[in-house]
Amino acid sequence: MPRPPEFLMPSRRHGCPNPRAGAAVIVITGASSGIGRSTANLFARYHWRVGLIARGQAGLQATFDDVSRHGAMAAMEQADVADLDALETAAARIEAVLGPIDAWINCAGNGTYGRFLDTPAEQFQRVTEVTYMGTVNGTRVALRRFIPRDRGSIVNVCSAVAFHGMPLLSAYSGAKHAVRGFGQSIRAELAQDGSHVHLTSVFPPAVNTPFFDHAISHMGQLGRPLAPVYQPEVVAEAIRLALINGRAEMPVTSTAILFSLGVRLVPGLVARAIRKLGYSGQLTGEAALQERHAPTLFAASEHPSPVRGAFDAQARSSSVHVRVLGLLARLRERGRREPKTGRQASPVRPADEAPVQEPALD
């Protein structure tokens, strides 16, 4: 595969690729549902080549079909992110089809609901292996490619629970705290080396994905997202903007921003609120919803999973914060022109093509 066009090279500020004369290549783990599937759809609309990694064949095929319907080139590989060798093999096969990877998005994660001592050790370990070590493995596979090329961007999908752990989610909270600290460490190493490779951690709030149907519950009822809840398309757009702005850490939505500020400024008040809401706010209380329960902690679903979960009625499809970030990105796009052609030099949307319609977030 030939070297990508110079239009795909990173800026001096960070390693974000700029698809201009050709399509950049993005790889997404956890691509079979939720945020991962939504992100694949979004980047397909921007005509990136999309590499898909997940455990389940049915879910992968559904996302592959989504991407293909948008007219984008795709490759899919079954792999468990907890298996480093399998992930390395998947990345190599994707590059053989799509070309060198420009961006890598670590979306894979899982969880269980229950008090710590009610959660079997093997379940706790599995959540840690997928949610934390899966991110570590994905980052390792990406950096093995990006560092020698001195270009590339990684986005680790963290969570607002990385700012303060939640009861009943001890394994997931611990894993997301670890993901945040891991990202900080890697960024320091890259900066010390003067590398143009970039890593961003994004911190979404509660998101309406199938996570809650797939999580094992030891509480006699299904878990639910703690309000306010957002649709996964909001997070997908934030991931795209994270690749553009190159921030080290990026809370997603004003909810996550206020939560992170509250943890720093009034930690006692936040802790009391979490103790009060952490149980009632995270459980459905409706036994009938048990019919939805399809745990996927140890095995992938045999059926495709949707982008969204069961909480459409409560989920917000828009975020003022994300919209403002998008506006700022477009303003920067207009301000950056090539000296002779005057064409835009930002990856906000593919140039030399009709503008792609922005995601419908309202």
TrEMBL record:
Matching Pfam families: adh_short (PF00106)
Domain of life of the source: Bacteria
Ketoreductase domain span: 24-203
Keyword Translocase part of the UniProt annotation: no
Record keywords: Oxidoreductase
Region (Disordered): 333-362
Family: Belongs to the short-chain dehydrogenases/reductases (SDR) family.
Name under which the protein is recorded: SDR family NAD(P)-dependent oxidoreductase
Lineage: Bacteria, Pseudomonadati, Pseudomonadota, Betaproteobacteria, Burkholderiales
